[in-house]
Design brief:
This protein starts with 43 loop residues before the first strand and ends with a helix. It has 16 helices and eight strands. A four-stranded parallel sheet has the order 2-1-3-4, with helices on both faces. A four-stranded parallel sheet has the order 6-5-7-8, with helices on both faces. It binds iron/sulfur cluster. The site of iron/sulfur cluster has 13 residues, from α15.
Length: 476
């Protein structure tokens, strides 16, 4: 055994040279310069909101308020490659889809207009959501947008990101755009309208006698609603336009077949993208001869409020002083008001279009009921991604549907890492639940859709057994 010890060794003094450059301040991240009112006419807003219909309806707000805008449209597979090329490593794919879409479009604008990168920075701004997915990587989205644009050479490109402090510069006095109450109301109306037409597509695409005719009428309904929403009198005109669209959709001849019912849930982006972000999953299922239960952004917005409400209730209970209690009480009032407004508009517009008249399923699930249902298996106050929803929805639908798909981005922490583990328990309680978990990665489409096809095959077998059983009882 050696008797040497660090203290017994002779200490050698090494003189370290003072560096030539010493950083005096901490790095504060990328800059996000303000967009001033005087430049309002000069600058074009680039935006896209998860999927085409939501962006389509949001244009009404920009039109009415005199903004120049470009709807970047649906996310495409290629966006993941762009996002990976310019973004950080090991992100979940909604981040690659959203930041990739932005950078792909900036290069496209550069190619098509011949403008320099500096001119693009001066003439365009991007508007998007701050935490378009879960709280697990919340806050990284805005930084990721800034990273990709700056690394790609669009230095100082401006972002308007709501529910994030990154757009704070843009909100100052004299800013050309604010996320005020009117923007939020218009955003809410846009996603409710998109949800109601999604209900129409889910109802008519698999059942219509002439699918292309049904889809063309849904497109016509979109135009009718957009026209009403673009008017300054949209509060009055939208209910009338919805009633007109509902009457038109009601006339579409439908088959009376009993198709397998498939429920799709999962992480918000993968579940609700309705484009290449989730391999157009719902449309694929419908075109394979099954009915798919619609997925609602409205439900997700209500869940966000519900989650914040639980946080506020806990904050009130454990507040250490009056100031803290007052803060949480204010937060609770805000969530309750927001929930009441969303519910009011959804019910109002729902009554106007009457989805049941064309076979639409438009029921928004009660979040308190779901929290109770899943309580023993996934505590409703574990927040992240969709929280308890995936597990609670599986229990809620176990005996009501013929197939249940949980769809999440590759490597999603709350959904792949936690919910899927709990679903094993749910499946042991409901062995007849035809369950499939899939991970979207932007590629691998054939593999994923073939797994979905197998679930659909089992669902069809289940339905045909049921029909056979019924007919043999009648025959007896
Ligand atoms: S919920 Fe999943 S996909 Fe969304 S940010 Fe979190 S890890 Fe990413």
């Amino acid at each position: 055994m050696s008797t040497d010890s660090p203290t017994s060794a002779k200490t050698k003094i090494i003189r370290v040279k003072r560096p030539k450059y010493i950083k005096k301040t901490q790095w504060n991240g990328y800059i996000n310069p303000s967009w001033r009112k005087k430049d309002k006419k000069k600058v074009t807003i680039l935006y896209n909101m998860i999927e085409r219909r939501k962006s389509f309806f949001l244009q009404a707000y920009f039109k009415r308020n005199g903004y120049k805008y470009i709807d970047l449209g649906d996310h495409v597979k290629e966006d993941v490659r762009w996002g990976k090329e310019w973004g950080n490593r090991m992100e979940c794919n909604p981040m690659y889809f959203t930041s990739g879409s932005l950078i792909r479009n900036l290069f496209k604008i550069q190619r098509e207009t011949g403008l320099s990168k500096e001119e693009i920075v001066d003439n365009y701004i991007f508007l998007g959501g701050g935490g378009q997915c879960g709280p697990c990587r919340y806050g990284m989205y805005p930084q990721e947008y800034l990273k990709v644009v700056n690394d790609a050479g669009f230095n100082g490109f401006r972002l308007l990101i709501f529910s994030s402090d990154i757009g704070i510069n843009q909100q100052c006095k004299g800013g050309a755009f604010t996320f005020d109450i009117w923007f939020l109301i218009n955003f809410m109306i846009a996603f409710i309208l998109a949800d109601l037409l999604h209900v129409a597509e889910c109802a008519l695409r698999p059942y219509a006698k002439d699918k292309s005719h049904a889809l063309s009428l849904i497109k016509k309904a979109e135009e009718i609603l957009l026209k009403a929403f673009t008017s300054r009198l949209y509060f009055l005109k939208l209910p009338l336009a919805l009633a007109r669209a509902g009457k038109m959709l009601m006339q579409i001849p439908r088959n009376k077949a009993r198709l397998p019912k498939i429920y799709v849930t999962g992480e918000f982006f993968a579940n609700l993208a309705h484009n290449e972000g989730n391999y157009n999953l719902r449309r694929f299922i419908m075109d394979e001869g099954c009915e798919v239960i619609p997925g609602f952004f409205t439900q997700r917005a209500l869940y966000d409020n519900w989650r914040r409400k639980q946080e506020a209730l806990r904050g009130i209970k454990y507040a250490v002083n009056k100031k803290e209690k007052a803060f949480w009480k204010k937060s609770l009032r805000k969530q309750n008001t927001s929930t009441a407004i969303i519910t009011f508009f959804y019910s109002w517009y729902h009554r106007s279009i009457r989805p049941e008249s064309f076979g639409g399923k438009s029921h928004i699930l009660n979040l308190d009921v779901l929290a109770k249902l899943g309580y023993d298996y996934y505590h409703p106050e574990i927040f992240g991604g969709e929280g308890n929803l995936e597990v609670a929805e599986a229990i809620y639908h176990a005996n009501k549907i013929d197939g249940f798909i949980s769809c999440k981005p590759f490597g999603c922490m709350p959904s792949s890492g936690v919910s899927d583990g709990v679903q094993a328990k749910v499946m042991s309680m409901y062995p007849n639940l035809n369950f499939l978990s899939i991970e979207t990665s932007g590629d691998n489409e054939v593999n994923i859709l073939s797994r979905v096809s197998m679930l659909l095959f089992k669902a069809k077998q289940k339905v045909s057994r049921e029909i056979h059983k019924k007919s043999s009882i009648i025959y007896k």
